[in-house]
Structures are given as C-alpha cells and as structure tokens.
Amino acid sequence: MRAGRAAAALAAAALLLACAAPQAEERRAEAARLMQELMSGKHPIGAPFTLSDPAGRRVSLADFRGRLVLLYFGFASCPDVCPTDLALIGAALEQLGPAAREVQPVFVTLDPARDTPAVLREYAAAFHPRFIALTGSEDEVRRVATDFKVFFEKVALPATQTYAIDHTAYTFLLDRKGEFVILFPPGTPADRMEYMLREQLGLAPR
User: Fold this and answer.
1) For the chain, what is the domain count?
2) Contact, 197 vs 173, CB < 8 A?
3) CA nearest 175: which of 45, 79, 85?
4) 3-state DSSP: the chain helix, strand, coil percent, rounded to 5?
5) Among 86, 101, 188, 195, which is most buried by a count of CB atoms within 10 Å?
6) What is the pLDDT of residues 25-83, one digit of tens each?
7) How far apart are CA 154 and CA 152, in angstroms?
8) Is residue 206 part of a domain?
9) Domain span at residue 45?
10) Which of 180, 149, 159, 178 is nearest to 49 (CA)?
C-alpha cells in the first residue's frame, strides 16, 4: 500500500495541472518538491476543517465520520480537468451501487469569489446527486487547501478582465475517521477508484 501511495503521489506531483496557461514556474516547482518531501513523512496530509455548504450550513470533516470521503479541490469554471475528474468520481460511485452510501464525495471550491452557493449547488449535483460542495472565505479555503498540500493561485487571462485558477488536481481518499489513505492523480479511471473504495469498505472486488 505504501508503494502505491508514493507512486500515486509522485504521479500527481508530476501532473501539476494548468486550467489556465502555464505560469508561476517557481511556485509549481515548489509544489512538486513539497509533494516529494510529503511522501518522506515530513509533512502529514490533511487536517480537520469546517466550511459552508450552499445553504450556508457549517459542515465539518467530522460530520462525515463513519463514511469514506472522496475529497476534491477545484473551481466551477475550470474548462477540462475538474469536470473530468468529478465525472470519474461520479462514475466510480455509480459502479459501487448500494455501497456508495458508505462514501461521501466532497467538492471544495478554490474560487469562493465566483462560485456562489447557487453555482456550487448546480455544479456539484451535475456529477453525482450525493456530492456536497463546500466554500468559505478566501482565508478559510486557503487554510484547508494548504493542509491538504493543494497548490493554487489566480492566473489572469490575456486580453480579458477575468482569471482562471492554476491548481493541483488530486482526489483524496479519506477513511472512516477522516484520515488520509491515498490520493488519485488527475484522470484516474473510475475502475481504479472503485477498486480502492471496495478495499477500504471490505468488499470483494467486482
């Protein structure tokens, strides 16, 4: 299992994605270096957090205790990587069938300024009805992302008045206690995620 975690993490580090054009090379190199150090045990992944759902309710990681959690950080206007990964999470849950009730998919926006409650509610539901979308202040989101070693920053789009967000795209699997188990790199097939979920749930492979 440890070798699998390391391989997945290093692959994810190598896939520091750009939902926008490549920028901030020094920051991106630092994110890759941190991920390598992380797998040496110097930096734990994750910490308890509390954010808000689209209805304004405060939701804590502890609220999901007893279920596995698939945690993803992104933003609703991401053109390709985020929707692809979220669709794969949804497909993995569909393949689990009734056992998917034991898994909570969670989407945390990295763009709280634009991802309003109405946007988040519709966006998350498009990938699976059990998805919970969470947001918070800029500082709250930054704190949670930092705890999970997620690199992100705003990138101005040329000849426009808007921006995209350059970010690392991992899907984090947390156990029933909310503790980190493994991360999946961008584009991880639904079958692979389903296999790992079945293993954590104590189910036979499909």
Assistant:
1) 1
2) yes
3) 45
4) 40, 20, 40
5) 86
6) 555 565 556 556 555 556 688 999 999 999 999 999 999 999 999 999 999 999 889 99
7) 7
8) no
9) 2-201
10) 178
